[in-house]
Amino acid sequence: MENTASTQKPLNIGFLLSPNFTLGPFGNFIDALRLAADDNDLSRQIRIKWKVMNHNWIPVKASCGVEVSPTSLLVDPSEFDYIVIVGGLIHSGKRIPTELTQYLKRAAQARIPLIGICTGSFILARTGLMEGKRCCVSWFHHKQFVEEFPHLDTHSEEVYIADRDRITCAGGTGVIHMAAYLIERHLSRFEAAKSLRIMLEDSSLSLQSQQLQPQPINTQTTKNLHVKRAMLYIEQQMAEPLTSQQLAEKVNLSTRHLERLFLLETGMTPANFSKHLRLHRAHEMLALSQQSIGTIAQDCGFSDGSHFARAFKSAFGYTPRELRAKQG
Questions:
Q1: Same structural domain for residues 223 and 193?
Q2: Most CB atoms within 10 A, among 47, 111, 121, 149?
């Protein structure tokens, strides 16, 4: 018997890829759509259709070096239910072509909902298309976004945010859940659940779901919302650490109450948690980057090099120089 969903008007989505776009979020999004679009893993565009567009036929290179070829030139935005801009490396020096910026503006004028995934939120904001809208960014890029767009209503707690005709998503595997939200909204809860199951996601994340907080080594996961938010602020302000009082003000608690919650959830005070997190980030940067020890110390909130070296040795049993020497 014919699936009744196939007789419905298909959900139609257009994709635009920015230079150095992140391949994972794009792949997660389009694969979630593919799994809901057809039965028996046949990958036909029945219940959902999509096009990967560009202003020319030149493939677009992802940040990992893989190139994706467009399947279509730019078409009338009104053909789509949504248009998605996939962001990428924000410091690569490459902006999206003028033709794509103009296309996004045309789509907004035609009242076609726009979706920004990963750093696509930066692109929408730079195009002037996030004015008066709540905007979701990854906690990892929160500081850069706020510095560039201090007037926008920016959030890095939620995995994704739908504010009228704008949807923004932090990226990563959160894109799968944003896709499931669209699938459930336009097709059915069954199709959304099927897509999630096949992609090994056991349940959907709602619009209220929180991003995973940055978590240093050997600390337990916290379920307290105030502590989660404070952890995010600590991560965002790593180069210029916040005091416990400043953190408490940001999460609308007294300093004493926040410290009590931190001790209960992590076994540490906010100050010790911050130091623990910054030292582990410094260890990671020393191991994986070629930056100088002094630069890494400053980036991780240690203005005094001697203090940094002592704290590092106390935490790991060797100094930053000894770590670098071991790694050649």
A1: no
A2: 121
Amino acid symbol at 9: K
User: Do 317 and 219 fall into the same domain?
Assistant: yes
* Residues 164 and 249 occupy one common structural domain: no
d(CA 264, CA 96): 47
**Sequence-ordered list of residues with C-beta below 8 angstroms from that of 137, at least 6 positions apart, any chain:** 119, 121, 122, 145, 154, 155, 156, 168, 170
Residues 156 and 90 in one domain: yes
180 closest CA partner among 157, 198, 163: 198
pLDDT in tens, 61-112: 999 999 999 999 999 999 999 999 999 887 665 688 999 999 999 999 999 9
pLDDT 10s digits, 115-173:
999 999 999 999 999 999 999 998 778 878 888 999 999 887 788 999 999 999 988 88
Q: What angle do CA 155, 22, 200 make, to 5 degrees?
A: 80
Could you tell me which residues come within 8 angstroms of residue 236 by beta carbon, excluding any fewer than 6 positions away? 139, 142, 143, 156
Given the structure tokens 């959900």, which residue do they identify? 11
Same domain, yes or no, for 63 and 151?
A: yes
Same domain (yes/no): 272, 217: yes
Q: Do 227 and 190 sit in the same domain of this protein?
A: no
